[in-house]
Amino acid sequence: MKICVVGCGALGSYYGAKLCRAGREVHFLLRSDYDVVRRRGVRVHSVEGDFRAHPRCARAPEEIGICDVVLIGLKTTANDQFPRLLPPLVGPNTAIVTLQNGLGNEAPLAALFGAEKILGGLCFVCLNRIEPGLVQHLAHGTIVMGEYRRWPEPRTHDLASMFRHAGVPCKVTDNLERAHWEKLVWNIPFNGLGVAGAAGYEALTASPSVLGRPRPLAPCLPTDKLLGDQRWERLVRELMLEVIAAANSLELKIPESTAEEQISRTRTMGAYKASTLIDFERGQPLELESMFLEPLRQARAAKVPTPRLAALCAVLEKLNPV
Question: Which residues are the active-site residues?
Answer without folding.
Answer: 183
